[in-house]
# Entry
Amino acid sequence: DAYDNCITVCNMENLDPLGIHTGESIVVAPSQTLSNKEYNMLRTTAINVIRHFGIIGECNIQYALNPNSEEYYIIEVNARLSRSSALASKATGYPLAYVAAKLALGIHLPDIHNSVTGKTTACFEPSLDYCVVKIPRWDLGKFHRVSTKIGSSMKSVGEVMAIGRKFEEAFQKALRMVDENINGFDPYVKVPNDEELEKPTDKRMFVLAASIKAGYTIDRLYELTKIDRWFLHKMKNIIDYYVVLENTDHTKLSHDVLLRAKWIGFSDKQIAAAVKSSELAVRIQRQESNIRPL
# Structure
Protein backbone atom coordinates (compact mmCIF):
# COMPACT_ATOMS: atom_id res chain seq x y z
CA ASP A 1 0.00 0.00 0.00
CA ALA A 2 0.98 3.68 0.02
CA TYR A 3 2.34 3.25 3.56
CA ASP A 4 4.83 0.48 2.66
CA ASN A 5 2.81 -2.43 4.05
CA CYS A 6 3.42 -5.45 1.83
CA ILE A 7 2.25 -9.08 1.92
CA THR A 8 2.52 -12.13 -0.35
CA VAL A 9 -0.87 -13.72 -0.97
CA CYS A 10 -0.10 -16.90 -2.90
CA ASN A 11 2.85 -18.83 -4.30
CA MET A 12 2.17 -21.13 -7.24
CA GLU A 13 4.30 -23.60 -9.15
CA ASN A 14 4.19 -24.74 -12.77
CA LEU A 15 4.25 -28.51 -13.10
CA ASP A 16 5.82 -28.21 -16.56
CA PRO A 17 9.44 -27.05 -16.93
CA LEU A 18 10.65 -23.70 -18.28
CA GLY A 19 9.81 -23.28 -21.98
CA ILE A 20 6.08 -23.90 -21.64
CA HIS A 21 3.82 -20.85 -21.29
CA THR A 22 2.15 -20.53 -17.87
CA GLY A 23 -1.21 -20.50 -19.65
CA GLU A 24 -0.32 -23.87 -21.22
CA SER A 25 0.99 -25.41 -18.02
CA ILE A 26 -0.59 -27.23 -15.11
CA VAL A 27 -0.24 -24.93 -12.09
CA VAL A 28 -0.24 -26.07 -8.45
CA ALA A 29 -0.82 -23.89 -5.38
CA PRO A 30 0.79 -23.73 -2.93
CA SER A 31 4.14 -24.76 -4.44
CA GLN A 32 5.06 -28.33 -3.51
CA THR A 33 8.70 -28.81 -4.48
CA LEU A 34 10.40 -25.69 -3.05
CA SER A 35 12.49 -25.96 0.09
CA ASN A 36 11.81 -23.48 2.88
CA LYS A 37 15.03 -21.62 1.98
CA GLU A 38 14.08 -21.37 -1.72
CA TYR A 39 10.56 -20.20 -0.90
CA ASN A 40 11.76 -17.45 1.45
CA MET A 41 14.48 -16.38 -1.00
CA LEU A 42 11.89 -15.85 -3.77
CA ARG A 43 9.40 -14.24 -1.37
CA THR A 44 12.00 -11.73 -0.12
CA THR A 45 13.01 -10.91 -3.71
CA ALA A 46 9.36 -10.33 -4.69
CA ILE A 47 8.86 -7.86 -1.83
CA ASN A 48 12.14 -6.07 -2.69
CA VAL A 49 11.10 -5.76 -6.36
CA ILE A 50 7.64 -4.34 -5.62
CA ARG A 51 9.13 -1.81 -3.17
CA HIS A 52 11.85 -0.83 -5.65
CA PHE A 53 9.27 -0.08 -8.36
CA GLY A 54 7.02 1.72 -5.88
CA ILE A 55 3.96 -0.30 -6.89
CA ILE A 56 0.78 0.39 -4.95
CA GLY A 57 -1.79 -2.35 -5.47
CA GLU A 58 -1.38 -5.88 -6.79
CA CYS A 59 1.65 -7.35 -8.54
CA ASN A 60 2.70 -10.86 -9.50
CA ILE A 61 6.19 -12.06 -10.35
CA GLN A 62 7.20 -15.15 -12.33
CA TYR A 63 10.51 -16.84 -11.66
CA ALA A 64 12.63 -19.49 -13.33
CA LEU A 65 14.44 -21.48 -10.63
CA ASN A 66 17.19 -24.02 -11.22
CA PRO A 67 16.14 -27.15 -9.24
CA ASN A 68 19.78 -28.16 -8.77
CA SER A 69 20.98 -24.86 -7.33
CA GLU A 70 19.56 -21.64 -5.92
CA GLU A 71 20.09 -19.79 -9.20
CA TYR A 72 16.94 -17.99 -10.34
CA TYR A 73 15.78 -15.45 -12.93
CA ILE A 74 12.83 -13.10 -12.92
CA ILE A 75 10.88 -13.84 -16.10
CA GLU A 76 8.27 -11.12 -15.74
CA VAL A 77 6.76 -8.64 -13.30
CA ASN A 78 3.05 -7.98 -13.85
CA ALA A 79 1.97 -4.85 -11.98
CA ARG A 80 -1.67 -5.59 -12.80
CA LEU A 81 -4.42 -8.12 -12.22
CA SER A 82 -3.62 -10.88 -14.70
CA ARG A 83 -5.10 -14.38 -15.18
CA SER A 84 -2.57 -15.62 -12.63
CA SER A 85 -3.98 -13.09 -10.14
CA ALA A 86 -7.50 -14.39 -10.74
CA LEU A 87 -6.30 -17.93 -10.05
CA ALA A 88 -4.44 -16.84 -6.89
CA SER A 89 -7.56 -15.03 -5.68
CA LYS A 90 -9.81 -18.05 -6.19
CA ALA A 91 -7.23 -20.48 -4.76
CA THR A 92 -6.73 -18.55 -1.52
CA GLY A 93 -10.09 -16.83 -1.02
CA TYR A 94 -8.27 -13.49 -0.90
CA PRO A 95 -10.17 -10.78 -2.89
CA LEU A 96 -7.19 -9.33 -4.80
CA ALA A 97 -9.17 -7.07 -7.17
CA TYR A 98 -11.27 -5.59 -4.34
CA VAL A 99 -8.21 -4.94 -2.16
CA ALA A 100 -6.18 -3.49 -5.07
CA ALA A 101 -8.99 -1.02 -5.82
CA LYS A 102 -9.04 0.10 -2.17
CA LEU A 103 -5.25 0.49 -2.12
CA ALA A 104 -5.45 2.72 -5.22
CA LEU A 105 -7.69 5.02 -3.18
CA GLY A 106 -4.94 5.38 -0.57
CA ILE A 107 -6.50 3.20 2.14
CA HIS A 108 -4.17 1.38 4.56
CA LEU A 109 -3.88 -2.39 4.04
CA PRO A 110 -4.70 -3.11 7.74
CA ASP A 111 -7.84 -0.92 7.46
CA ILE A 112 -9.38 -2.99 4.64
CA HIS A 113 -11.65 -5.85 5.73
CA ASN A 114 -11.45 -9.13 3.87
CA SER A 115 -14.86 -9.37 2.22
CA VAL A 116 -14.50 -13.16 1.81
CA THR A 117 -13.71 -14.17 5.41
CA GLY A 118 -15.68 -11.28 6.90
CA LYS A 119 -13.48 -11.40 10.03
CA THR A 120 -9.87 -10.66 9.13
CA THR A 121 -8.22 -7.58 7.67
CA ALA A 122 -6.57 -7.61 4.24
CA CYS A 123 -3.13 -7.37 5.88
CA PHE A 124 -2.60 -11.10 6.41
CA GLU A 125 -1.04 -13.86 4.35
CA PRO A 126 -3.41 -16.76 3.59
CA SER A 127 -2.27 -20.21 4.71
CA LEU A 128 -3.65 -23.15 2.73
CA ASP A 129 -4.42 -26.57 4.22
CA TYR A 130 -5.50 -27.86 0.80
CA CYS A 131 -4.04 -28.21 -2.68
CA VAL A 132 -5.23 -26.36 -5.79
CA VAL A 133 -4.55 -27.59 -9.33
CA LYS A 134 -5.21 -25.58 -12.50
CA ILE A 135 -5.28 -27.39 -15.85
CA PRO A 136 -5.64 -25.60 -19.23
CA ARG A 137 -8.29 -26.64 -21.74
CA TRP A 138 -7.42 -26.88 -25.42
CA ASP A 139 -9.82 -27.25 -28.33
CA LEU A 140 -7.17 -27.97 -30.94
CA GLY A 141 -9.31 -30.71 -32.49
CA LYS A 142 -11.63 -28.02 -33.89
CA PHE A 143 -8.88 -26.57 -36.06
CA HIS A 144 -7.26 -28.10 -39.12
CA ARG A 145 -3.50 -28.00 -39.70
CA VAL A 146 -2.84 -26.79 -36.15
CA SER A 147 0.09 -28.35 -34.30
CA THR A 148 -0.88 -30.05 -31.03
CA LYS A 149 2.58 -29.29 -29.57
CA ILE A 150 2.55 -26.86 -26.63
CA GLY A 151 5.35 -24.42 -25.85
CA SER A 152 6.05 -20.73 -25.32
CA SER A 153 3.01 -19.52 -27.29
CA MET A 154 -0.40 -19.88 -25.69
CA LYS A 155 -3.04 -22.00 -27.44
CA SER A 156 -5.36 -22.89 -24.56
CA VAL A 157 -8.88 -21.45 -24.67
CA GLY A 158 -9.70 -21.76 -20.98
CA GLU A 159 -8.77 -23.47 -17.74
CA VAL A 160 -10.29 -25.31 -14.81
CA MET A 161 -9.40 -25.22 -11.11
CA ALA A 162 -9.84 -28.07 -8.65
CA ILE A 163 -9.36 -28.18 -4.88
CA GLY A 164 -8.45 -31.27 -2.84
CA ARG A 165 -6.74 -32.36 0.36
CA LYS A 166 -4.04 -34.08 -1.69
CA PHE A 167 -2.38 -33.29 -5.01
CA GLU A 168 -3.66 -36.59 -6.44
CA GLU A 169 -7.27 -35.71 -5.58
CA ALA A 170 -7.17 -32.17 -7.01
CA PHE A 171 -5.28 -33.38 -10.10
CA GLN A 172 -7.83 -36.07 -10.95
CA LYS A 173 -10.77 -33.73 -10.28
CA ALA A 174 -9.29 -31.13 -12.64
CA LEU A 175 -8.70 -33.71 -15.42
CA ARG A 176 -12.37 -34.72 -15.21
CA MET A 177 -13.51 -31.10 -15.40
CA VAL A 178 -11.39 -30.33 -18.47
CA ASP A 179 -13.10 -33.07 -20.49
CA GLU A 180 -16.34 -34.76 -19.43
CA ASN A 181 -15.35 -37.87 -21.43
CA ILE A 182 -12.27 -38.44 -19.25
CA ASN A 183 -12.52 -40.36 -15.95
CA GLY A 184 -9.32 -38.98 -14.44
CA PHE A 185 -5.63 -39.84 -14.77
CA ASP A 186 -6.50 -42.70 -17.12
CA PRO A 187 -3.64 -44.91 -18.46
CA TYR A 188 -5.80 -46.23 -21.32
CA VAL A 189 -6.50 -42.96 -23.19
CA LYS A 190 -3.11 -42.87 -24.96
CA VAL A 191 -0.16 -45.21 -25.52
CA PRO A 192 3.45 -44.70 -24.30
CA ASN A 193 5.39 -42.45 -26.66
CA ASP A 194 8.85 -41.06 -25.83
CA GLU A 195 8.56 -38.25 -28.38
CA GLU A 196 5.30 -36.95 -26.89
CA LEU A 197 6.87 -37.04 -23.43
CA GLU A 198 9.90 -35.07 -24.61
CA LYS A 199 8.01 -32.64 -26.87
CA PRO A 200 4.76 -32.05 -25.01
CA THR A 201 1.32 -31.99 -26.61
CA ASP A 202 -2.11 -31.19 -25.18
CA LYS A 203 -2.50 -34.92 -24.31
CA ARG A 204 0.88 -35.39 -22.61
CA MET A 205 -0.64 -36.20 -19.20
CA PHE A 206 -2.36 -39.28 -20.61
CA VAL A 207 0.81 -40.39 -22.40
CA LEU A 208 2.51 -40.03 -19.01
CA ALA A 209 -0.20 -42.17 -17.37
CA ALA A 210 0.24 -44.87 -20.03
CA SER A 211 4.03 -44.75 -19.64
CA ILE A 212 3.85 -45.19 -15.85
CA LYS A 213 1.46 -48.13 -16.35
CA ALA A 214 3.88 -49.60 -18.91
CA GLY A 215 6.65 -49.64 -16.30
CA TYR A 216 8.73 -46.53 -17.09
CA THR A 217 10.87 -45.57 -14.08
CA ILE A 218 10.54 -42.20 -12.37
CA ASP A 219 14.11 -41.30 -13.39
CA ARG A 220 13.45 -42.11 -17.06
CA LEU A 221 10.25 -40.06 -17.03
CA TYR A 222 12.12 -37.17 -15.39
CA GLU A 223 14.80 -37.26 -18.10
CA LEU A 224 12.15 -37.19 -20.83
CA THR A 225 9.71 -34.65 -19.36
CA LYS A 226 11.76 -32.64 -16.82
CA ILE A 227 8.67 -32.70 -14.61
CA ASP A 228 9.78 -32.71 -10.97
CA ARG A 229 10.10 -36.18 -9.45
CA TRP A 230 7.72 -35.20 -6.63
CA PHE A 231 4.86 -34.83 -9.13
CA LEU A 232 5.86 -38.01 -10.95
CA HIS A 233 5.75 -39.98 -7.69
CA LYS A 234 2.26 -38.60 -6.97
CA MET A 235 1.11 -39.60 -10.46
CA LYS A 236 2.59 -43.06 -9.90
CA ASN A 237 0.50 -43.34 -6.70
CA ILE A 238 -2.64 -42.96 -8.82
CA ILE A 239 -1.58 -45.57 -11.41
CA ASP A 240 -0.46 -47.99 -8.68
CA TYR A 241 -3.91 -47.73 -7.14
CA TYR A 242 -5.49 -48.33 -10.56
CA VAL A 243 -3.66 -51.68 -10.54
CA VAL A 244 -4.94 -52.43 -7.01
CA LEU A 245 -8.53 -51.71 -8.08
CA GLU A 246 -8.19 -53.75 -11.28
CA ASN A 247 -7.09 -56.74 -9.17
CA THR A 248 -10.02 -56.31 -6.76
CA ASP A 249 -13.28 -58.19 -7.25
CA HIS A 250 -16.20 -55.73 -7.33
CA THR A 251 -18.04 -57.93 -4.81
CA LYS A 252 -15.14 -57.54 -2.36
CA LEU A 253 -14.70 -53.76 -2.35
CA SER A 254 -13.91 -53.07 1.30
CA HIS A 255 -14.41 -49.82 3.21
CA ASP A 256 -10.63 -49.22 3.30
CA VAL A 257 -10.20 -49.78 -0.46
CA LEU A 258 -13.01 -47.35 -1.28
CA LEU A 259 -11.81 -44.76 1.25
CA ARG A 260 -8.23 -44.82 -0.11
CA ALA A 261 -9.57 -44.51 -3.67
CA LYS A 262 -11.54 -41.41 -2.66
CA TRP A 263 -8.52 -39.92 -0.89
CA ILE A 264 -6.56 -39.93 -4.14
CA GLY A 265 -9.38 -38.57 -6.27
CA PHE A 266 -11.07 -41.59 -7.88
CA SER A 267 -14.68 -40.95 -8.91
CA ASP A 268 -17.38 -43.62 -8.53
CA LYS A 269 -17.42 -44.00 -12.32
CA GLN A 270 -13.63 -44.41 -12.39
CA ILE A 271 -13.69 -47.05 -9.63
CA ALA A 272 -16.52 -48.88 -11.43
CA ALA A 273 -14.51 -48.99 -14.69
CA ALA A 274 -11.46 -50.38 -12.86
CA VAL A 275 -13.33 -53.12 -10.92
CA LYS A 276 -15.68 -53.90 -13.86
CA SER A 277 -18.86 -52.86 -12.08
CA SER A 278 -21.43 -50.08 -12.57
CA GLU A 279 -21.23 -46.53 -11.26
CA LEU A 280 -24.55 -46.94 -9.41
CA ALA A 281 -23.39 -50.14 -7.69
CA VAL A 282 -20.16 -48.47 -6.50
CA ARG A 283 -22.07 -45.41 -5.28
CA ILE A 284 -24.53 -47.54 -3.28
CA GLN A 285 -21.66 -49.53 -1.80
CA ARG A 286 -19.78 -46.32 -0.91
CA GLN A 287 -22.85 -44.81 0.79
CA GLU A 288 -23.43 -48.03 2.72
CA SER A 289 -19.83 -47.75 3.91
CA ASN A 290 -20.67 -44.18 5.01
CA ILE A 291 -17.97 -42.63 2.79
CA ARG A 292 -19.34 -39.25 1.81
CA PRO A 293 -17.87 -35.92 0.63
CA LEU A 294 -17.47 -33.21 3.27
